[in-house]
């Protein structure tokens, strides 16, 4: 009988065996797969074991993944939720490597700023140290995010990868702790003054949905399952674990949602607003047909935002057929019975699928927080399997690659 040993490694599964020696941990378990091969898993903690359980199918049944090229630095990809053309700009590969550097502005209370270049996985302490020296600040300043509404979010010194987790219109500020109340948003955070409908209306709705879907797919493919574990278990389990690609994918959801809201409220002409509302509803429909539930949820939630839903004159002039279509969208999105409508819809599909990622993160978080990790000093493997099942769902969604549509089919 053949015997395999699988050791956990926080890197892609293709490198599991070559890196096992230095990563051997303290938790060990042995069991049999359906093919009767004994499997031994070792990990430094239960979070590692979850990842091992998820990787087993990749080692036993799937070929070695292709090498992923690194992404160009984020500084060359400025994205603005308020600009339609920038929202749709794509690229060949969006995979972020943690050692890549990014250029970030750090502001003072008087709105002067310095520009720093640091690796994406830098800690808040690294950012403070670099900015403090350039701005000649005193000892022990703190770093915080100031949002466009004036809200302040204070970061901890050991927080990592915060450049990727800033809100859409947030800015980094550095100041002494006693001066935090004096921090105000910079003028550029006030938002746009005009709509970009002229960019949207020149593209067919199907072409627009296709372009959005391909961009979302690249972001989704860049997310490694390990990043989801980093997000859910946090630094208590993975001290240096980051989720840069996952944060970028989640940020994309907010970009799409508030892009819809922004475009709707910036139009003053009711007739044009009705036209744009109709286009957005059809855009959501095409995204759903392309199995892009990430964009489907974002667009539909944008149209359901209070700032848009209160435009009563616009909704009244919408054709009844389109209103009915939007009502069906809301049914799919209902959170009743743990999003049963959405889960049933997805269960009937085949990959490629771009899932509603916030729900997957929520599933893993509830499983982690609602179940004990240990019972009588033994690992709760039922909990580990539940979390691993969510990761397998992600793997199923991208089992098949998204094929680009020809220009003729998009007309």
Automatic annotation (TrEMBL):
All residue ranges annotated as the Ras-GEF domain in the record: 204-411
Cellular component, GO annotation: plasma membrane
UniProt cross-references to InterPro entries, sorted A to Z: Ras-like_GEF, Ras_G-nucl-exch_fac_CS, Ras_GEF_dom_sf, RASGEF_cat_dom, RASGEF_cat_dom_sf, Ubiquitin-like_domsf
CDD domains membership: RasGEF (cd00155)
UniProt key word Transmembrane: no
Superkingdom in the source lineage: Eukaryota
Biological process (GO), any one: Ras protein signal transduction
Pfam families per record: RasGEF
GO molecular function, one term: guanyl-nucleotide exchange factor activity
Keyword entries, A-Z: Guanine-nucleotide releasing factor
Entry keyword Calcium: no
Protein name: Ras-GEF domain-containing protein
Provenance organism: Lymnaea stagnalis
